[in-house]
Predict the 3D structure of the following.
Amino acid sequence: MNTTTTELQEKVNELLLVLQKDLEHIERSIHELDELRGLVIKRDDSGLSKLLEQIRSRSQEYAANQKLREELRRQIAGILDWPVGEVRLGRLQQEVSAEQKVYVGQVRERLGSMISRMQREHTRTVMLLCDLSRFNSMLLNTILETGRVCGVTYNARGGTSRSGDVAFMNLQL
């Protein structure tokens, strides 16, 4: 084994350790998105504050890991004489030993599935927050607008009907 191959294997092993921390971060983020939705639905302000503080406390740790990942990509690019943008797991998998090839493939597959799962959880959270915002706007408009109701009422069978020109509050003096 030549020095370049040994150096490449060492850097790839370091990169895989960094990517393992990324996987843990993604897993934690998925859990936090789920927890966030639950706390928003429960209207648990103290729980939301605690969650925000936990996220803030880990942000520096994640930034350091991200910086290390980028540095390792630059080093691997230098070893292989590639542009940094070309250092991807799929391409790197072709350059490493058979033993590392299997592990790089597993990490690549797990990263892909975790990122896909995180995107779904993020979309669910965004949809919940958008629906709550829309609902709050409709509720405020119904309560505060004088003489007009812009909402729809749903009955037990799922049918809709519009309310008359009555507001819940009259803000005129």
In short: Residues 98-144 form the longest helix (47 residues). The chain has a mean pLDDT of 87. The beta strands are 152-154, 160-162. The CA atoms of residues 6 and 29 lie 35 Å apart.
